[in-house]
Specification:
Structural class: alpha/beta
Strand order of the largest sheet: 2-10-9-8-5-3-4
Modified residues (N6-(pyridoxal phosphate)lysine): 196
Keywords: Amino-acid biosynthesis, Aminotransferase, Cytoplasm, Pyridoxal phosphate, Pyridoxine biosynthesis, Serine biosynthesis, Transferase
Strand content: 15-25%
Family: Belongs to the class-V pyridoxal-phosphate-dependent aminotransferase family. SerC subfamily.
CATH architecture of the largest domain: 3-Layer(aba) Sandwich
Number of helices: 9
Pathway: Amino-acid biosynthesis; L-serine biosynthesis; L-serine from 3-phospho-D-glycerate: step 2/3; Cofactor biosynthesis; pyridoxine 5'-phosphate biosynthesis; pyridoxine 5'-phosphate from D-erythrose 4-phosphate: step 3/5
Helix content: 25-40%
CATH class of the largest domain: Alpha Beta
Bound molecules: 4'-deoxy-4'-aminopyridoxal-5'-phosphate
Distance between the termini: 34 Å
Function: Catalyzes the reversible conversion of 3-phosphohydroxypyruvate to phosphoserine and of 3-hydroxy-2-oxo-4-phosphonooxybutanoate to phosphohydroxythreonine.
Number of strands: 14
CATH topology of the largest domain: Aspartate Aminotransferase, domain 2
Number of domains: 2
CATH superfamily of the largest domain: Type I PLP-dependent aspartate aminotransferase-like (Major domain)
Order of helices and strands: EHHEHEHEEEEEEEHHHEEHEEH
Length: 360
């Protein structure tokens, strides 16, 4: 069996050690005589898996005790609605920072429930940078502040946490969670679809400060109320059990590999060398402000877009796949989440240099 280097933005690569353990346990989980997929979510076997996964995530991220961790479905996209439904708490306004395609989706959904104050936007700079914090126009009567720490499509990332005072700070961390240590206590809500740094698609992790639970808007669907899930340990209905189990294996893998400090060190190194290769050539380009370049999603263009198809084809032939940029921006995008080995980034850089030599 030979594994490829898959640069997909998500679903993305999973650590090989995790896949192997899942394979070993697939038919018979630890002598239980059944697969995790076949377990009752309320049985003692799955309960132990669920509890261990949460405990490991809490340890790896340093999640304080006054936060609930919810293991939900519906993707990060459902959180675009759940956040206003739960966090407006009688208010009529929320602050949103617009840094790209995913911010825009969150804003569009929030507008269904409240007045959105776009406190800062980099749209006029084509989302190639992040608005300086001193230019943000936060509203006094906004119930919370929402931002997207990493824009998966644009490849723009906050390398700092906004200090928004008493207002709950809400972050769509789908494509950056677990890539580095963060201070969870600075946030009201953190949410992320699993399919990048956590596990397989179908699971959504929500970390929510307890005092923000229990004030959902009237008529909020039961399944969209954080309280429903917080009170039932994410077992109000059948949770995505297999995804939860695999996420647990990923949390252990992170812990066993040095935790988030180690992830950050490797991620920074991987990103730095890829950007250096791009910047060091006239053949490749990345337009993002160097201060805000993503460690996780690295978009780049070829000087001659007519070579895009050949580039993708030859890269794939060498086991470097899914490098095509998002359909909205074109060019290339290399997503290099935790599970992308450094050797994969090295192989991409070597291929890029060779391709340039032959076509530049
Ligand atoms: N937010 C961000 C930053 C994303 O990258 C994505 C998925 N690519 C989403 C939200 C949507 O996530 P989901 O598909 O889990 O709804």
């Amino acid at each position: 069996m030979s594994r490829i280097y898959n640069f997909s933005a998500g679903p993305a690569m999973l650590p090989e050690a995790v896949l192997k353990q899942a394979q070993e346990e697939l038919v018979d989980w630890q002598g239980s005589g059944m697969s995790v997929m076949e377990m009752s979510h309320r049985g003692k076997e799955f309960m132990s898996i669920a509890e261990a996964a949460e405990a490991d995530l809490r340890q790896v991220m340093g999640i304080p005790d006054n936060y609930k961790v919810l293991f939900l479905q519906g993707g990060a996209s459902s959180q675009f609605a759940m956040v206003p439904l739960n966090l407006l708490r009688g208010g009529a306004k929320a602050d949103y920072i617009n840094t790209g395609a995913w911010s825009k989706k969150a804003i569009a959904e929030a507008k269904r429930y409240c007045n959105v104050n776009v406190a800062a936007t980099s749209e006029s700079e084509n989302f190639m940078t992040i608005p300086a914090f001193d230019s943000w126009q936060l509203a006094d009567d906004a119930a919370y502040v929402h931002y997207t720490p990493n824009e998966t499509i644009g490849g723009v990332e906050f390398h700092w946490i906004p200090e928004v005072g008493d207002k709950p700070l809400v972050a769509d961390m789908s494509s950056t969670i677990l890539s580095r240590p963060i201070d969870v206590s600075k946030y009201g809500v953190i949410y992320a679809g699993a399919q990048k740094n956590i596990g397989p698609a179908g699971l959504t992790v929500v970390i929510v400060r307890e005092d923000l639970i229990g004030q959902a808007m009237e008529r909020t669907p039961t399944m969209f109320d954080y309280k429903t899930h917080a009170e039932s340990d994410s077992m109000y209905n059948t949770p995505p059990t297999y995804g939860w189990y695999l996420a647990g294996l990923v949390f252990k893998w992170i812990r066993d590999n040095g935790g988030l400090e180690a992830m950050a060190e490797i991620n920074k190194r991987k990103a730095d060398k890829l950007y250096a290769a791009i910047d060091g050539s006239d053949f490749y380009a990345n337009p993002v402000d160097p201060e805000c370049r993503s460690w996780m999603n690295v978009p780049f263009t070829l000087a001659n877009p007519e070579l895009d198809a050949t580039f993708l084809k030859e890269a794939a032939a060498q086991g470097l796949t899914t490098l095509k940029g998002h359909r909205s921006v074109g060019g290339m995008r290399a997503s290099i989440y935790n599970a992308m080995p450094e050797a994969g980034v090295d192989a991409l850089i070597d291929f890029m240099a060779d391709f340039e030599k032959r076509n530049g």
